[in-house]
Design goal:
Elements (H helix, E strand, L loop, with lengths): L15 E10 L2 E2 L4 E6 L5 E4 L5 E3 L1 E3 L2 E2 L1 E2 L1 E8 L7 H5 L24 E5 L2 E4 L2 E3 L2
Parallel strand pairs: 1-11, 1-12
Antiparallel strand pairs: 1-2, 1-5, 1-8, 3-4, 3-9, 6-7, 9-10
Length: 130
């Protein structure tokens, strides 16, 4: 594994904490969800959950982690090209290829989720409900 850098390995990068966890929705793992930690100031960190609902945040490129301190957390189930509603046939009014967000706004556009990231390893699990 190669770690090519721009010469500023720690110069302008804030303190980071490693962040991982699991996202479930109504008790089941939430696969392919986008999770973003947004610090009060600075660059957000994000990840996509795997089939088991697990994630590990990436700060930038190949750098794992998240800015230390208070973060708002946004979780969305919609990924570009996701057409789950179309294949399920649940919503006859849905346009072909356009997915609907299945999570309530309190987890994304009007998030109530927060996390206080510390240096070192952090685990934040989110059990989301309708």
């Amino acid at each position: 594994m190669s770690f090519a850098g721009c010469g500023n390995e720690s110069g302008d990068r804030p303190d980071l904490g490693l962040v991982k966890g699991t996202v479930t929705f109504e008790g089941a793992p939430l696969a392919k969800a986008s999770i973003t930690f947004m610090p009060d100031s600075g660059r957000p960190a994000s990840a996509t959950t795997d089939a088991a609902g697990q994630y590990e945040l990436i700060y930038i490129r190949n750098t794992p982690g998240c800015k230390v301190g208070h973060n708002k957390v946004l979780i969305t189930s919609v990924k570009e090209g996701d057409n789950e509603m179309e294949t399920e046939g649940d919503d006859p009014t849905a346009e072909a290829g356009v997915a609907k967000e299945k999570l309530p706004p309190k987890y994304n556009t009007e998030t109530e989720l927060e996390a206080n990231v510390k240096e070192g390893e952090n685990t934040f699990d989110f059990d989301l409900k309708k």
